[in-house]
Specification:
Layout lengths: L9 E3 L5 E3 L2 E3 L5 H13 L4 E3 L7 H15 L7 E6 L6 H15 L4 E6 L7 H13 L3 E7 L3 H9 L7 E5 L7 H10 L2 E5 L4 H5 L2 H10 L3 H11 L3 E2 L6 H7 L9 H8 L37
Length: 301
């Protein structure tokens, strides 16, 4: 990944820490696949790796990191590793305990960014205070949030000492969360896009397909470039070597202002997950850690 077309490979967070603009996500990836994907990604130039306890693959991610560092001769501080506080672990003491177990699974001494995965009502303030403690102790280089709407973000800011460095949101052409993006930009909080490709609906959109043909790029590359030109950090998920490599090839072209506006016009507000989808918020989805056959006892905190 080379710096081209006026884009920096990193962004500077509100605490001065530099974060890569493009990384690898590993949601819905078992430990063996995660280890392989992480190793390949790092060897091919990725420096940002994003996981979570929820994904059930922190052990695999840690293994992939260790293997890649050995293979490439890179150092741990060459990478930016993100993981997340599980909803079921929220609360002050339980957050501190959960973080120590996360470090053990990753086999790391620190993480670069620790995110609160979702704002569990009644608990997220206490959880944030514990995360502030981890930050002050130097166990994490930055702390942030994920999936926070403006109402919950404002409540957090009213009861916290540290402004989140990042808000990781589901943002893609069909779900752009424009009000949240505007508020986060105003507060100096970096937006990071999860599910940036928006699944098959975004990738197959006729306007995206036209732009892919125009720029001689894939639909995924067009969308990721759109993310980067809007100042986002973006973490496409793939377990296929070819796509991992392809997704990083987005620094040698630039979308025109008109083409950016075209994609901006595709917003349908179609979220794949929101608060009512979780049992902790009155929904029907059981909020549990994903479990994989290759690590049946991996997440007994």
């Amino acid at each position: 990944m080379k710096r081209e077309q006026g884009l920096e490979l990193t962004t500077t967070l509100n605490n001065g820490v530099k974060m890569p603009r493009l990384g690898l996500g590993v949601w819905k990836t078992d430990n063996a696949s995660a280890a392989h994907s992480v190793k390949v990604a790092i060897e091919k130039g990725y420096h940002l790796i994003d996981t979570a306890k929820q994904y059930g693959n922190e052990t695999g991610v840690g293994k992939g990191i260790k293997e890649a560092l050995k293979e490439t001769g890179m150092n741990r501080n060459d990478l930016f590793v993100t993981t997340k506080l599980f909803n079921g672990d929220q609360g002050y003491d339980s957050t501190l305990h959960a973080f120590e177990n996360t470090l053990k699974r990753l086999d790391l001494t620190y993480v670069d960014l620790y995110l609160m995965h979702w704002p569990v009502d009644g608990k997220y303030i206490d959880s944030w205070k514990a995360m502030e403690k981890l930050y002050r102790e130097g166990k994490v280089r930055a702390i942030g949030i994920s999936n926070f709407d403006n109402k919950r973000l404002q409540n957090l800011l009213n009861h916290s000492d540290i402004v989140p460095a990042v808000n990781q949101m589901e943002t893609n052409p069909i779900n752009q969360e424009k009000d949240i993006v505007e508020t986060n930009n105003h507060d100096g909080i970096q937006i990071e896009a999860w599910s940036p490709l928006g699944g098959g609906e975004s990738l197959s959109d006729p306007e995206i397909q036209k732009l892919a043909k125009k720029y001689n790029k894939s639909a995924a590359q067009v969308i990721l470039r759109w993310d980067l030109q809007r100042g986002f950090v973006t973490i496409p998920k793939s377990s296929h070597d070819k796509r991992i490599i392809e997704n990083s090839d987005v620094f040698d072209f630039e979308l025109s202002d008109d083409d950016v506006k075209t994609i901006n016009g595709l917003d349908k507000g179609k979220r794949s997950l929101w608060y009512n989808d979780f049992a902790w918020h009155g929904g029907k989805t059981v909020d549990d850690v994903d479990k994989w056959d290759d690590s049946p006892a991996n997440y007994k905190d």
